[in-house]
């Protein structure tokens, strides 16, 4: 068991490694580097959340210091959700804020030498599937079955469902494209950084910082924003403009 | 007909290279989006932040096809699904 593989090494190495295995109902299951990195990210978020909770219990009328930071984060995330989803955004503030902070910190964890958890398809596919579930739960909650059927047969009249399979395929493609987009973007950053550090490690002084700025911070933040924006747009589309 | 392992490895590498031709499309598409965004900012400098966020969202979506190519190339290179 080498714990050194959590950090960036001296050879080209960007794969997920198993740290130790255990038996789960007869299956061989591995604890991988992704699990460890996701745990670190989660501990950071939980620590921040507890600190924010303790602080906001004794919130002051005129905010100072840490309270300012917490209020700024919450206001920005809520404003983003409300700006995209309109009135129906209020119910989704918690979910969007949570996945935004989680994906952002996961992408930024590459700066600490960790392997970003979002560079594992096992992390991004569940995020995509959660979006998929939310889209269709809200579609069926806010629309009548007749309207949904009409929408699924949309370019043709509802009694002629030739277009139905194509619309269904495009629905199923949503979580796959969402999760693959995030996964491939973060993975491409991981691969490039592994190539720089692995192949020309002796020359990699100071200037890889600029690559980190682009690949980890800029690309990571953009992909986080895009994931949340697309999630919100799809859910708002599913709700439609019926009532809500 | 029997092929040996190294032949399949070589063909996988060629396939990975060919898969990355997919990078041309997103490059052109993102360039067009950025050009139009620049023109829009020139016409209406007040809406700069809205234009920038819309442009980045559109570019990130346009990037997807190139990323599919990248994933295909990485799978061909490192997962080696074609090896027996």
Assembly type? heterodimer
For CATH, the homologous superfamily of chain B is named as: F1F0 ATP synthase subunit C
DSSP strand count of chain B: 0
Radius of gyration of chain B, whole Å? 19 Å
What's the story with the biggest beta sheet of chain B? none
CATH fold-level assignment of chain B: F1FO ATP Synthase
Q: Could you tell me the strand content of chain B as a percent range?
A: under 5%
Shape annotation of chain B = rod-shaped
The level of helicity of chain A is 55-70%
Figure out the total of helices of chain B: 4
Percent range of helical residues of chain B: over 70%
**Structural class by secondary-structure content of chain B:** mainly alpha
Unreliable stretches of chain A: 1-9
Broad CATH class of chain B: Mainly Alpha
In terms of DSSP E residues, the strand content of chain A is: 5-15%
What Rg of chain A is obtained from the alpha carbons, in whole angstroms? 22 Å
H/E series of chain A, N to C? Answer: EEHHHHHHH
Count of individual helical segments of chain A: 7
Q: Characterize the main sheet of chain A.
A: 2 strands, antiparallel
- Estimated structural class of chain A: mainly alpha
Protein topology:
The complex is a heterodimer of chains A (244) and B (84).
Chain A: E1 18-24, E2 27-32, H1 33-57, H2 65-85, H3 93-108, H4 121-142, H5 145-152, H6 164-199, H7 208-239
Antiparallel strand pairs in A: 1-2
Helix pairs in contact in A: 1-3, 2-3, 3-7, 4-6, 4-7, 6-7
Chain B: H1 5-19, H2 24-43, H3 48-62, H4 64-79
Helix pairs in contact in B: 1-4, 2-3
């Amino acid at each position: 068991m080498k714990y050194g593989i959590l950090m960036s090494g001296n050879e080209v190495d960007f794969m997920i490694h198993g740290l130790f295995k255990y038996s789960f109902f007869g299956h061989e299951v591995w604890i991988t580097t992704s699990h460890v990195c996701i745990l670190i990210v989660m501990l950071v978020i939980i620590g921040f959340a507890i600190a924010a909770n303790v602080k906001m219990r004794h919130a002051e009328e005129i905010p100072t210091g840490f309270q300012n930071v917490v209020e700024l984060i919450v206001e920005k995330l809520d404003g983003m959700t409300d700006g995209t989803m309109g009135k129906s955004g209020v119910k989704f503030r918690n979910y969007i804020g949570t996945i935004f902070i989680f994906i952002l910190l996961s992408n930024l964890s590459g700066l600490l030498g960790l392997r970003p958890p979002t560079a594992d398809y096992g992390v991004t596919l569940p995020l995509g599937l959660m979006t998929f579930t939310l889209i269709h739960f809200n579609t069926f909650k806010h629309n009548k079955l007749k309207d949904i059927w009409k929408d699924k047969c949309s370019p043709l009249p509802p009694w002629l469902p030739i277009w139905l399979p194509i619309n269904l395929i495009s629905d199923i493609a949503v979580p796959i494209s969402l999760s693959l987009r995030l996964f491939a973007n973060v993975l491409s950053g991981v691969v490039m950084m592994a190539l720089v550090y692995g192949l020309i490690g002796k020359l990699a002084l100071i200037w890889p910082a600029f690559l980190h700025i682009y690949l980890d911070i800029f690309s990571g933040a953009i992909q986080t924003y895009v994931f949340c924006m697309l999630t919100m747009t799809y859910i708002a589309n599913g709700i439609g403009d019926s009532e809500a | 007909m029997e092929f040996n392992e190294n032949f399949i490895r070589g063909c996988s590498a060629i396939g990975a290279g060919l898969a990355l031709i997919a990078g041309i499309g997103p490059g052109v598409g993102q360039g067009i989006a950025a050009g139009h965004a620049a023109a829009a900012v020139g016409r209406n400098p007040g809406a700069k932040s809205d234009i920038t966020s819309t442009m980045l969202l559109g570019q990130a979506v346009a990037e997807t096809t190139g990323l599919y190519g990248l994933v295909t190339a990485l799978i061909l290179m490192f997962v080696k699904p074609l090896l027996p």
